[in-house]
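Sequence, please.
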């Protein structure tokens, strides 16, 4: 009798500490480092708890940017065009648009009418 390999879900095997992918870990660490700068400023003022909350808040924002995708909401024109794309790609494209001062063209295939 031969052996049969069962298919398995390998999506989560590339994750660090179960919830972090490599990209989301990088964004979390970078944003946490920005929050650490604010922590030092707040600690000079004697507001240590506000500094810790700032670090956690910035790290959470970095995690969200590195992990989530833009939802496809029918009510908003912006989300119809960017729905399903990674948030960091959207931010990167917006920064390119602002810095270059040029237009960016994004082409998408349109369905042809069967007449």
């Amino acid at each position: 009798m031969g052996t049969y390999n069962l298919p398995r879900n390998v999506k989560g095997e590339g994750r660090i500490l179960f919830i972090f992918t490599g990209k989301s870990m990088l964004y979390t660490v970078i944003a946490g480092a920005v929050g650490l700068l604010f922590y030092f400023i707040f600690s000079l003022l004697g507001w240590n708890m506000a500094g810790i909350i700032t670090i956690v808040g910035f790290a959470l924002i970095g995690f969200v940017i590195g992990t989530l995708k833009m939802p496809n909401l029918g009510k908003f024109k912006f989300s119809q065009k960017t729905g399903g794309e990674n948030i960091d790609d959207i931010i990167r494209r917006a920064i390119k648009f602002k810095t270059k001062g040029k237009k960016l063209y994004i082409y998408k295939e349109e369905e042809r009418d069967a007449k």
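The first helix runs from residue 22 to 45.
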